Amino acid sequence: MKSTFFTTTVLAMLSVASALPVEQVAELDARQLGSTENDLKDGKCAGNVFIFARGSTEIGNMGTVCGPQTCSGLKSRMDGDVICQGVGSQDGYAADLPSNFLPKNTNSGAIDGAVKLIEQATAQCPGSNILLAGYSQGSAVMTNAIQALDATTQSMVKGVVMYGFTRNAQDKGQVPGFPTDQTKVFCAAGDLVCLNTLTITPAHLTYGVNAPAGASFLAGTANGN
């Protein structure tokens, strides 16, 4: 993916994704903001395991734009029978900006980190439905991670949601090799990252409004709908 321009405007626009002044974000604990979820790492299990990869520069391991909203939406739709886990810096995914320019639109360490969490979920919680989602660079992390799974592990992934899918154009709106009826892509009108650029527009920060629909889709795939 190549961008026609990449300026400090990108940094400024991404920083507003938290909907809080930068100085306040620095003072607030990420867990209090709902931007960090470590249920899987804490040894928990449920009938459904939701793993999310945040967008570039987002805080915590869930971010703030649409990760926490999707997690809470799943919990309300599945009577709490779901645990949530973010792919964070400790897993190898720093959500840095330069990695967006790599051939896979993220780096190998981030992909490996997501794969390990998915594999941990299948081993720690056998029989649980695995539900995945990613936003912006996180969507690239997830699409690459799914393709790296062995067939048995991939079969346990029941649903995938991509918000602001940075590989939307290259991958033709799907995860290569993964069932299209188990995949939902949200690309807002005017979001140019869905059109094979890295140009950030205001539309790229709007996916919180799609989180309820994303959670409903994932809940449906988990229930076999």
Account of the 3D structure:
The chain is α/β, with parallel strands linked by helices. The protein has a single domain (8-222), classed as Rossmann fold (3-Layer(aba) Sandwich), CATH 3.40.50.1820. The protein is built from seven helices and five strands. It has helices at 8-15, 22-27, 67-77, 108-124, 137-148, 151-155, 211-222; strands at residues 48-53, 83-86, 129-135, 157-163, 183-186. It has a five-stranded parallel β-sheet with strand order 2-1-3-4-5, with helices on both faces.
Topology:
Elements: H1 8-15, H2 22-27, E1 48-53, H3 67-77, E2 83-86, H4 108-124, E3 129-135, H5 137-148, H6 151-155, E4 157-163, E5 183-186, H7 211-222
Parallel strand pairs: 1-2, 1-3, 3-4, 4-5
Helix pairs in contact: 3-7, 4-5
Percent strand: 5-15%
Strand element count? 5
The helix/strand series, from N terminus to C terminus, equals HHEHEHEHHEEH
User: Structural class, from secondary structure content?
Assistant: alpha/beta
Evaluate the radius of gyration.
16 Å
Mean pLDDT: 88
If helices are DSSP runs of H or I spanning 4 or more residues, what is the number of helices?
7
For the biggest sheet, the summary is: 5 strands, parallel
CATH topology: Rossmann fold
- Sheet with most strands: strand arrangement: 2-1-3-4-5
> Based on the structure given, which CATH architecture is correct?
3-Layer(aba) Sandwich
CATH class: Alpha Beta
Shape: globular
Number of domains as seen in the coordinates: 1
Distance, first to last CA: 34 Å
Identify low-pLDDT runs: 1-30
According to CATH, the homologous superfamily is: Alpha/Beta hydrolase fold, catalytic domain
Helical residue percent band: 25-40%
